[in-house]
Amino acid sequence: MAERRATAEPAQTVVKVGSDYYVLASSLASRRASQVLADGRSFAVFETAGDIIDSPLEAQGFFDSDTRHLSRFEMLIAGAAPYFLNSYLSDDRAQFRATLTNADLGKKGRQDWLPRNSIRVNRGWVLSGAALYHRLTLHNYIGTPVDIEIDFFYGVDFADVFEVRGLRRKRRGEMLNPSVDGSRVELRYRGLDNSVRATEIRFDIAPTQIDDQHAVFVLRLEPGENRDLECRITASGDSPSYSAVAVNRAPTFLRALEQRQSELSEFRSDWSVISASNNEFATMIRHAGVDLTSIIARGDSKGAFIMAGVPWFATLFGRDSIITALSILPFYPQIAVRTLRTLAKLQGDTVDEARDEQPGKIVHEMRNGEMAATGEVPFGRYYGSVDATPLFLWLYGRCVESTGDLQLADELWPNVERAIEWIERWGDRDGDGYVKYLRETPRGLANQGWKDSEDAIFHKDGELARPPIALAEVQGYVYAACMDVASVAARLGRGSIADRLLTRATALKQSFERDFWLEPEGMIALALDADKRPCRVMTSNGAHCLATGLVDGERATAMCKRLLADDMYSGWGIRTLSGREKRYNPMSYHNGSVWPHDNAMAALGLARACDHTGVLKVLAGLFDASEQLNTSSLPELFCGFRREIGLGPVPYPVACYPQAWSAASVFMILQAMLGIRVLGFERRVFFDTHLIPSWLDWLSIDKLRVGDGRVSFVLRRSPNGAAIEVKDKSPGVRVEI
């Protein structure tokens, strides 16, 4: 069989994301509006009229298992692009709809003349599993029959997501001969990993013409008639990643829509229901929950996780999935349980320098594409994050406390012990009490905290810090892990381990204040480098140490003031880096931008330090940004330019949306605002600060899980803070202020 070789695309200008790995920001992508459908590991990105534009270095297309299975799907009517009228995502994110109409067709005065706005064109898209469904509905509004030609142009490049991000490849695999049969086209590609990936495009009626790039339909529309045309695009392959993904073969668009709506409804049933007197705020909360629900990836019967974000991180990321689960824990504890089980199964069990793995370490990233399979990128199963392991322990402790589930605690205890051993042996190799990172493979991430850009960790003069590096926020995560796991250990009768963890936490707090505190800056250092020299730059990292309780008292008060100073707070949120620092750039990924999850962690820290005004200031900035950015819930990040009257926040050109921990940030800020803590063993909900901003009269939370019970209540703003009215609760559940 003859074969055609796939060609690599030329490189273009890039924006750096992570260490040595890039995301392209083409001028077209920055100007083009897009819409996203997501279903677990699969997602589709369209331009606003419902087409997938053939633009190799934009993230448009239908992706599954880190591979683009459809890179073009464009529609013409009688050879002309239709006029765009509007488009929208449904409230549940189950379908994308676009309304268009015909352009002026033919010549005025001639028999074939068809003026614009004669034919309504509705396009619908649904993503269900590894299948993408399209329905086209035409309606004739003129008084005569119309024979109209519909052209679909399609194509597949089978690009790995890292190729779309901009990584150049020396070689690519081979495009196999297409199969064309009546109303069906199958396009196939044999990768360098020797796996065959395939895309099937199947129409519900036979076209007038069809080949491997183009299908033509000629449809007669009687006056007032509706005509439907449907297409199903299915991704498949013979690699193990595809066998783990259920291929949905619903026969019609409506059946696929019903299935997807049913699945989303099932996920939503596990959430607490949150409503508010402020409609815009209620919409932000609702859309955040819907965005998170749409990117839940199912594992086995007990495992699941929320993918990090679309389009670049549509997979499991240990750090992101854990922080997301922590953010929504009181309102959706089931996803925390399933995330812990998923990560426990992938816990490191050997020393493998090629993927920065050590025994007990929690995985950073899982990739299923061709480039991961061939080793062109090291992320097939990659462990290069220093914070995922202490975060896993922190989530474990908080989840057990919230659910009151000792059976879960005992089930995961062997994984907990291995994670503790990793912290003590591999994370702290020199025994100074700090967990540090040093990449073992030169192809891995140079920086292994959440700010993993190559230039994100540096000294006051701009010099990059030399590893091994002890990040400030990582020590905070370790402290929280020790405190919360110690509580579980005591409940399980493992008193000696509880005492050991508490001793480590106490020692860490003492040494951290000595080695990281910066006078007269009133802040803690970003990190300690290989020489134990502090990086004396003003960053947001310290806020995470407030949230975990590692810093408290007068120093916490000073840090709150510093975080909200004009060089740190942009008016939309707290910047990752002070505007006075040498490497400050408000358009950078980590050196001056605003990240919602980072601000949510800051809000939690401000609340813990009793800076209630600061909590509301962070909430107000992000709430306003959400409205101005027209994303309803929040994107991965946005630029850190100062807020100006009459102007909105500046988007970051290649930010993920939906993005898990950004969507979840509003729920962490709710935790901070309310001071809510769910104590499952005691069947008690505890409120500490219970703040309500002036623009919010009431907040209602229904079906909040408390151990094996539930409670529903309303918080109403009053001159003294908030009054709580319990609407309904299970017997024995208590609500306390």
Molecular structure report:
The protein is an alpha+beta fold. The chain folds into 3 domains: 3-264, Beta-galactosidase, Chain A, domain 5, CATH 2.70.98; 270-674, Glycosyltransferase, CATH 1.50.10.10; 675-737, no CATH class. Helices cover 30% and strands 25% of the residues. The chain has 19 helices and 35 strands. Helix 9 packs antiparallel against helix 11 and helix 17 (612-629) runs antiparallel to helix 19 (665-674).
Short structural description:
The chain is of the alpha+beta class and 737 residues long.
How would you sum up the global shape? globular
Task: Kindly report how far apart the N and C termini lie.
Answer: 74 Å
pLDDT average, as an integer? Answer: 92
- The radius of gyration is 27 Å
| DSSP E strands, number | 35
In helices, the fraction of residues equals 25-40%
For the record, the count of structural domains works out to 3
What topology does this entry show?
Elements lengths: L2 E3 L8 E3 L5 E3 L2 H5 L2 E6 L2 E6 L13 E4 L2 E4 L1 E6 L5 E7 L5 E7 L17 E10 L2 E10 L5 E10 L5 H5 L8 E3 L2 E3 L2 E7 L5 E8 L5 E2 L3 E8 L4 E12 L2 H4 L9 H16 L4 E4 L2 H16 L1 E3 L5 E3 L11 H11 L4 H13 L19 E2 L3 H5 L6 E2 L5 H16 L2 H6 L1 H15 L42 E2 H20 L3 H22 E2 L4 E2 L2 E2 L12 H8 L4 H11 L32 H13 L3 H18 L30 H4 L1 H10 L1 E4 L4 E4 L10 E9 L2 E10 L2 E9 L4 E3 L1
